[in-house]
Write a structure and sequence with these properties.
Elements (H helix, E strand, L loop, with lengths): L2 H4 L11 E6 L10 H9 L2 E5 L4 H4 L7 E6 L9 H12 L4 E6 L9 H10 L4 E4 L4 H8 L13 E5 L13 H7 L2 E5 L5 H10 L7 E6 L7 E6 L3 H8 L5 E5 L6 H4 L10 E3 L1
Parallel strand pairs: 1-4, 1-5, 2-3, 2-4, 6-7, 9-11
Antiparallel strand pairs: 7-10, 8-9, 8-10
Helix pairs in contact: 7-8
Length: 271
């Protein structure tokens, strides 16, 4: 081999940055993990979803580029494919990128899909779990999801399924018989249909249900009722998303245990 050959430049190789899929928690900035806070403080780029609270956005490195990815029902700043492509492009600048998601990235947050796409693109990626609203919001409302006298099982389910996915829809009948507590994410818009399905499967009209909006935030609101009353209550209160629903006898504990909620939190509307 000649000296000239030894001096030949190496093939060009793109040096990628790293993407962190960080769960921001449900809203209360005190529920953000220490690792998540540290990453926000040192990130070069933060791409965040619409439901991340302003107090958490205030923790971002002031020199970082901040991009709103949106993702509220019917109002997307970026479609999913655009968000993924943006993450790949930013990683090619060798930046430290935080993909900031409300709740936990792997609980109805599309974190699994984004991580899969990034790995296929050769982008280094790491997930940083967060507190999911389906656990935190009921806790702030004084509703334990399990209790030895009420429930030994809990199921988390989406009430808003994407069109065209490659699996059957939620089997509400199976949930009605297989879980003592059901937590429904993104189900407010479809609540009448969901309740109809669960009642057809055998749950009674007096089954307790709680709707919790803006869980863990100062403006947290709750509606407590039953299958027979909750839709009318929701309409009368103009109660809308984002909210979760908790179904099961554990809801009856909210009055006894509501002192678990921080005193500055907001309004509770009852039947």
């Amino acid at each position: 081999m000649t000296a000239e050959a030894n001096l030949a430049p190496a093939p060009t190789r793109i040096c990628l940055g790293k993407v962190y899929l960080v769960g921001a928690g449900p809203g209360d900035p005190g529920l953000l993990t220490v690792k998540g806070k540290t990453l926000l403080e040192c990130a070069d780029v933060v791409i965040y979803d619409a439901l991340v609270s302003p107090q958490i956005l205030d923790l971002i490195n002031p020199h970082a580029e901040k991009i709103n990815a949106g993702k509220r029902r019917g109002r997307h700043s970026l479609v999913q494919e655009e968000t993924t492509q943006l993450l790949i492009e930013k990683a090619q600048t060798q930046a430290v990128i935080v993909r900031l998601k409300g709740g936990d990235p792997f609980v109805f947050g599309r974190g699994g899909e984004e991580m899969e796409d990034l790995i296929q693109a050769g982008v280094p990626v790491e997930v940083v779990p967060g507190v999911t609203s389906g656990i935190a919001a009921p806790a702030y409302a004084g509703i334990p999801l399990t209790h030895r006298s009420h429930s030994s099982s809990v199921t988390f389910v989406t009430g808003h399924e994407s069109a065209g996915k490659y699996r059957p829809e939620v089997n509400w009948a199976a949930l009605a018989h297989g879980s003592e507590t059901i937590v429904v994410y993104m189900g407010i818009h479809n609540l009448p249909h969901i309740l109809s399905e669960l009642q057809a499967a055998g749950l009674g009209a007096e089954t307790p249900i709680a709707l919790i909006r803006w869980g863990t935030r100062p403006d947290q609101e709750e509606l407590i009722g039953t299958f027979s009353t909750i839709v009318a209550q929701m309409e009368a209160a103009e109660f809308s998303a984002p909210a979760i629903a908790v179904i099961g006898s554990v809801v009856n504990l909210h009055g006894l245990l509501s002192g678990s909620r921080p005193s500055e939190l907001g309004v509770r509307r009852e039947q």
